[in-house]
Write a structure and sequence with these properties.
Elements (H helix, E strand, L loop, with lengths): L2 E6 L2 H11 L3 E5 L16 H4 L8 E2 L5 E2 L5 H15 L1 E6 L5 H14 L7 E3 L7 H9 L6 H28 L10 H17 L4 E10 L8 E9 L2 E3 L16 E2 L3 H10 L4 E14 L7 H12 L3 H13 L15 H15 L35 H4 L3 H16 L5 E13 L5 E13 L32 E13 L8 H10 L8 H10 L3 E4 L2 E4 L1 H13 L1 H4 L3 H13 L5 H10 E2 L2 E2 L1 H6 L6 H4 L1 E4 L6 E6 L2 E6 L9 E3 L11 H9 L5 E6 L6 E7 L2 E7 L12 E3 L11 H8 L3 E5 L5 E7 L2 E6 L2 E4 L5 H4 L2 H9 L6 H4 L4 E5 L6 E7 L2 E5 L4 E3 L11 H13 L18 H18 L1
Parallel strand pairs: 1-2, 1-5, 5-6, 9-10
Antiparallel strand pairs: 3-4, 7-8, 7-14, 8-9, 8-13, 11-12, 11-14, 12-13, 15-16, 17-18, 19-20, 20-21, 21-22, 23-24, 24-25, 25-26, 27-28, 28-29, 29-30, 31-32, 32-33, 33-34
Helix pairs in contact: 4-6, 6-18, 6-19, 7-15, 7-16, 9-13, 9-14, 10-13
This protein binds one DNA strand through helix 4, helix 6, helix 15, strand 22 and strand 26.
Enzyme class: isomerase
EC number: 5.6.2.1
Family: Belongs to the type IA topoisomerase family.
DNA sequence: CAGTGAGCGAGCTTCCGCTTGACTT
């Protein structure tokens, strides 16, 4: 029977909506985007691979035309959708109403290609309630192609940014690194904050902490107050100092310890009078319902969940129908949800807590696309946490969301905040004022249900009460105690996952669906690491950020994304043109240099300079350098540490690398070594360390040993670890190479560990052996037996194929799968093709193997001599010719 | 930044945004 096919983005949404729409409709999901630019060479179609822009999959010379592919794991799903469409008489594209959703709708249309007799409609809704869905089905619109263009612009710009700038980092900093519009700015935020911390100079300041007695009859009778001013000049507090440790405000008196102590002494006999009592009404509005970022922040503060844990717990709640969609930038509640919340407030707290009018929360997020509701309990009436039957993290997160939603429809908290100033004269004639502030809450309102936590420990939570006595102006008060108190300013706090995400949102960088993964990216790349909950930048991030700031200032600027959003809005509104904008970004225009130009001009970037950071002043002569094996210190040629180097522990936060710390590291450059004891024969100290080639043991020669005496070393066997290694093991390792014996001609055979693993050596003839343990145990007979065998030429060749697939349709040669140095590959005897990411030996068919081989063949014979100059002539003459051609062509393109 | 001996298929890394998968006992 014919039906109408509705396609939404999320399977859980499809289920819900299917229930609302009834039997005439079949509701399916796209499961997000269904097509995208190929993300790696393996997925790039052969026909564009050899184009100069093939790596980008965007034809930058012809209108920035993108080449989309359906990812392998989506193919089956597309087939399913096509099948459903076959029996449909109408297609409703009901993806989210935002830029990405509009693009998904267009991709669906372009990929499913409905027949002319199947009308296509675009259906949009912002809340998943029966009424909203039915209305949406009755009021479809057309696809907004300008919005699709805006999304394409965003997609292409991100591709060009990421895939052009990342290779610059591979060349100049380290292979495998990445740069992108979002991650690079996120990293920069963390680096900039650390640099502020490094520049930070602490300020010490003092004040007086007083305890005052309001006299009997007052409740409370005793109350605290702090020194506020001396001779009408305000006493400096922490916020009055800048990061340089200097007072940043005028008209402040900076008290030292001596000042504070002498003033306290002079106040010993002072009596005080109330100078002023200022009372203001205190009102506090409830917080808006959760959106993705605020949920992540509160789950972090209240439940200690990381952003990724929060999202996956929320995902499960969503899939099981407990909450609405969790990736949203909207704080809007549907009418039904508002009613449900108000009902719940009445039931739980009484009618007094229900405001007359429902509360409406406008979005605070600048580039909000508001395709969804706020995150709230699902349904038209809310289940209390106890009614859900949930447990563990799901229960706790649901409870948080429920409380927040309910509280958002409660009355304001009301009360009074009071400031009391007490004045008195010191023995030396100075006039002093103490100040005390209190807060009383007369009606808690929403605070009974939910109080937001704060990241800033100096801020009071909204529900904290401090009661003060009801004093009147002129009333006399005595001091119970006046104590000098010392304080120090604190450096700006490091970002946590939650505060970094908050910062990114405020700067319009990233989207709800990506906040958690942005953190994942910068952690995975090694740009930042976590120390407790704090995000600490690695030195690598300093190098990368420096390169980007110096050479891609526009792209790495904090405003880049916000400006891009404005442009995209204009494209979506038909006021600007996609190609003009992309061309400006990529090729430049007027005095704006394009990305392409910047990338091409990078030959002169000095990688060494980029990776060098001065520690302390020039005179100290200390540099930190970011090396392939991590950060290390190096002395200036003309400085006190000339020629010296020292490892810097990977987990030493950059702001803790003081000059003193650097000197300490120079003094003990060995870094972390594990003391194993004294060698029973030589009496030398034996230690285990981590080195360039992994963990190893070595012995410490006496300081006065001649320089050419090298200490013996030995890599740990794979079966050993630095945690468990014993002196006994170490002694064995140091005994290598071991003399196994002599052959019939009197040539010595030794056993040792090398770059390619354990092996035997007889003169210049070496043979691999199969276990490291055998280095210690192999006998002369066994060794002679190995040498009696002819030498194997190459490990790969010696191994039997993993699988035989039959004959290749092109070459007619048998195709086999083998395991080699670079992983598994297929070969027909002439060409070898490495298996791609998604291939497995088990599932590999001859068809797929032939595809890989054809792909490989299309790129021509292996180019052996191309790189390091021809050492040996390649076996095949024909191969040599085309190799040379290929190589020249490539060079020409690069320059 | 410890120090080592052969000869072996080179080819790939990377962006941001949408959304959930998961071969088995």
């Amino acid at each position: 029977m014919a039906h109408k096919l509705v396609i939404v983005e999320s399977p859980a949404k499809a289920r819900t909506i299917g229930g609302y729409l009834g039997r005439d409709y079949v509701v399916e999901s796209s499961i997000g985007h269904i097509r995208d630019l190929p993300n790696s060479a393996a997925d790039t179609p052969t026909k564009i691979k050899d184009q100069p822009w093939g790596r980008l999959a965007v034809d930058v010379d012809h209108g920035f035309e993108p080449y989309y592919v359906v990812p392998r794991d989506k193919k089956a799903h597309i087939a399913k959708l096509k099948k459903l469409l076959k029996d449909a008489d109408e297609l409703y594209l009901a993806t989210d109403e935002d830029r990405e959703g509009e693009a998904i709708a267009w991709h669906l249309l372009d990929e499913l290609k409905p027949g002319k007799d199947v009308p296509v409609k675009r259906m949009v809704f912002h809340e998943i309630t029966k009424q909203a869905i039915l209305e949406a089905a009755d009021n479809p619109r057309e696809l907004a192609m300008d919005l699709v263009e805006a999304q394409e612009t965003r997609r292409i710009l991100d591709r060009l940014y990421g895939y052009e700038v990342s290779p610059v980092l591979w060349k100049k900093v380290m292979s495998g690194l990445s740069a992108g519009r979002v991650q690079s700015v996120a990293t920069r935020l963390v680096v900039d904050r650390e640099q502020e911390r490094m520049k930070f100079r602490v300020a010490s300041y003092w004040d007086l902490d007083g305890t005052f007695d309001a006299g009997s009859g007052h409740d409370p009778r005793i109350f605290p107050a702090k020194l506020y001013s001396v001779d009408d000049v305000r006493v400096a507090r922490g916020s009055d100092f800048g990061n340089d440790g200097e007072l940043s405000k005028r008209d402040r008196v900076h008290l030292t310890r001596a000042d504070a102590e002498s003033l306290a002494g002079a106040l010993a006999d002072t009596t005080y009078a109330v100078r002023s009592v200022e009372s203001k009404p205190y009102t506090r509005k409830p917080y808006a319902p959760f959106r993705t970022t605020t949920l992540q922040q509160e789950a972090s503060r209240k439940l200690g969940m990381s952003s990724s844990v929060t999202m996956s717990v929320a995902q499960r709640l969503y899939e099981n129908g407990f909450i609405t969609y969790m990736r949203t930038d909207s704080t809007t509640l549907s009418g039904g949800a508002v009613q449900a919340a108000r009902t719940q407030v009445r039931e739980l707290y009484g009618a007094d807590y229900v405001p007359d009018q429902p509360r409406v929360y406008a979005s605070k997020v600048k580039n909000a696309q508001e395709a969804h509701e706020a995150i709230r309990p699902a349904g038209e009436s809310f289940r209390t946490p106890a009614q859900t039957g949930l447990s563990g993290d799901q229960f706790r997160l649901y409870e948080l969301i429920w409380m927040r939603t309910v509280a958002s429809q409660m009355k304001d908290a009301r009360g009074e905040s009071v400031t009391i100033r007490l004045g008195g004269a010191a023995a030396d004639g100075r006039d002093v004022v103490f100040s005390s502030s209190g807060r009383t809450i007369t009606f808690h309102g929403f605070l009974r249900a939910y109080v937001e936590d704060t990241d800033d420990t100096s801020k009071r939570r909204d529900d904290v009460e401090t009661r003060l006595p009801a004093l009147a102006e002129g009333e006399a008060v005595s001091a119970a105690s006046v104590t000098p108190e010392g304080h120090e300013t604190k450096p700006p706090a490091r970002y946590t996952e939650a505060t970094l995400i908050k910062e990114l949102e405020e700067r319009e960088i990233g989207r709800p669906s990506t906040y958690a993964s942005i953190i994942g990216t910068i952690l995975n790349r090694g740009y930042v690491y976590k120390k407790g909950t704090a995000l600490v930048p690695a030195w690598l991030a300093f190098s990368v950020t420096r390169l980007l700031v110096e050479h891609f200032p526009r792209q790495i600027s904090y405003e880049f994304t916000a400006r891009m959003e404005d442009v995209l809005d204009d494209i979506a509104g038909g006021r600007r043109d996609r190609n003009t904008e992309l061309a400006e970004f990529y090729f430049g225009s007027g005095d704006v240099e394009g990305l392409k130009t910047l990338v091409n001009e990078l030959g002169d970037i000095d990688a060494r300079e980029l990776a060098t950071f001065r520690v302390g002043d020039r005179e100290e002569g200390i540099n930190l350098r970011v090396g392939r094996y991590g950060p290390y210190l190096e002395g200036d040629e003309d400085g006190p540490f000339a020629g010296k180097r020292a490892n810097v522990p990977d987990d030493l936060p950059p702001d803790e690398l003081s000059v003193a710390k650097a000197r300490e590291l120079f003094a003990n450059p060995a870094g972390e070594e594990i003391e194993l004891g004294q060698h029973p024969e030589t009496g030398l100290r034996v230690v285990a360390k981590n080195g360039r080639y992994g963990p190893y043991v070595t012995e410490q020669l006496p300081e006065d040993a001649p320089k050419k005496d090298r200490p013996r070393t030995g890599s740990l066997f794979k079966s050993m670890s630095l945690d468990t290694i014993t002196l006994e093991d170490a002694v064995k390792l140091l005994s290598l190479p071991r003399v196994v014996g002599e052959d019939a001609d009197g040539v010595e055979i030794t056993a040792q560990n090398g770059r390619y693993g354990p092996y035997l050596k007889k003169g210049t003839d070496s043979r691999s052996i199969d276990s490291e343990e055998k280095l210690l145990s192999i006998t002369l007979d066994e060794a002679l037996a190995i040498y009696a065998q002819p030498k194997q030429r190459g490990r790969a060749a010696a191994q039997a194929p993993l699988k035989e697939l039959g004959n290749d349709p092109v070459s007619g040669q048998p195709v086999v799968v083998k395991s080699g140095r670079f992983g598994e590959y297929v070969t027909d005897g002439e060409y070898n093709a490495t298996l791609r990411k998604d291939d497995s030996v088990e599932d590999l068919t001859l068809e797929r193997a032939a595809e890989l081989l054809a792909d490989r063949r299309a790129r021509g014979p292996a180019k052996k001599a191309a790189k390091k100059g021809a050492k040996k002539a390649p076996a095949k003459k024909t191969a040599k010719k085309s190799t040379a051609k290929k190589a020249t062509k490539k060079v020409a393109k690069k320059s």
